[in-house]
Amino acid sequence: MKFNNIIYKTEEGIATIIINRPKALNALNPETVEELNTCIGFIEKSKDIQVVIITGSGNTSFVAGADIVSMSKMTPMDGRLFGKMAQDTFTRIENLPQPVIASVNGYALGGGCELACACDFRYASDTAKFGQPEVGLGVTPGFGGTQRLPRIIGRGQGKEMIFTAKIIDAQKALAIGLVNEVFSQECLMEEVMKTARLIASKGSIAVQLSKTAINRGLNCDIVTGIAYEDEVFAICFATADQKEGMGAFVEKREPKFIGQ
Question: What is the Cα–Cα distance from 169 to 185, expressed in whole angstroms?
């Protein structure tokens, strides 16, 4: 697939999406969000993609936010449509069957922080910066930040970041649980790929059902969540991957999963 503002590539069942607007620090304008949405739609239908990585081009910025130049001229209806487009796209990312890793290689501000939060987990470079600076521009976070960020780092931490518009570094993000790991800029993508390959080596049906169970369970009471887990656990026993995985364990060999 060819895009103006995104680079998309695949390797060994791993798809990498690179937001590619380096002159704008990879800021999200409507065209870029639309291209991202198209890309996610393709991945949703793919049987070959097992893991997705989202990152930004260059070594300065993951996504520095929404494009303020384009937003400054928007009417209330324009703003609503842009926000809804981004929210819908980020929700599709959150709900992708495949695990999605954010490789945060620099600034992740505003819409960039919100994009990272829509991924399943985040690895960051030691130069990364996170923040929701929207109130300093006279607007609220509009791409899911008021909802996902407090769910990830807790209500108090989330409110503090949003209300103060403070920008935090990678170590602070690690301390509050916004990112899972911090690596040097030089090693970041190598470590992200290492984790992606590890996930891709497991039974893809089990991984995807585990993701769905976690996402659904966290949005309902625990009794309902455990009941759903019971259902997906049972479904696994109808798959070839379950037979292969347990057979390989008994036979003391490495499993060869086929995603069926």
Answer: 14
Q: Give helix then strand counts, H and E, for the chain.
A: 11, 10
3-state helix, strand, coil in the chain (%, to 5): 50, 15, 30
The whole-angstrom separation of Cα 176 and Cα 166 is 14
pLDDT in tens, 106-162: 999 999 999 999 999 999 999 999 999 999 999 999 999 999 999 999 999 999 999
H or E element: which one contains 14?
strand 14-19
Task: Please report where in the chains the tokens 């780092």 appear, as a residue.
Answer: 153
Q: Decide if 231 is catalytic.
A: no
Q: What pTM was computed for the model? A: 0.94
Tokens of 212: 């769905």
Q: Which residues of the chain have pLDDT under 50?
A: none
Please pick, among 114, 181, 190, 254, the residue that the annotation labels catalytic: 114
114 a catalytic residue: yes
How many CB atoms lie under 10 A from the CB of residue 60?
15
